[in-house]
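Each lists sequence, tokenised fold; shown next:
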Amino acid sequence: MKLVVTEYSVKVVLVYVDDLLITGNNQHLIDDTRKTLHNKSEKGVLLNQRKYTLELLKLGGAKPASTPMKTNAKLTTVEYDSIVRNNDNPELTDISSYQQLVEKLIYLTITRPYICFAVQVLSQFMQHSKRSHWDVVLRVLTYLKKTLGQGVLLMKGPITSLTTYCDLDWATCPSTRRPVTGYVIQLGDSLISWKSKK
């Protein structure tokens, strides 16, 4: 019996959060990998949470929606409904599913700024959630289904500016009549921070 040992080329690419390590025993393979990664990121780097979104979509959502919330949707508290005597929108008997799903959506806003407003509205009803709130959570999921591959593009190139945009919508909240504010911060052409709150 004859044992033949041949030399193998090994290339390893390790990724942890935002760090990347390329190593191996063949410099040509390492250089090829670096060149491929460089060519694939001509415009920049797209940050997305596609796998995480796919896991969320297993929890609910049917036909894809074109927006996270319906235009001019007004979600109210249980207290508000009792004052105006609205009994058509019952409180959920088990709010744990609602809470868990909203928490997962909050994490997803890291790379999905366009769901921020809907998620911040939904997060206000974590303690006393109603059927209408649950319906909006499901609508956000259906919107994610339609926009599965989207994320935040960090543009390649020199950074020459820091730009901030802010907007305010007076007395929008139907329960408190408080304004809704929002802001967006761009570093160069890249979106780096955003928030929407009442």
Observations:
- Strands lie at 11-16, 19-24, 44-47, 152-155, 162-169, 180-187, 190-197.
- The chain has a mean pLDDT of 84.
- Residues 131-146 form the longest helix (16 residues).
- The two ends are 78 Å apart (CA to CA).
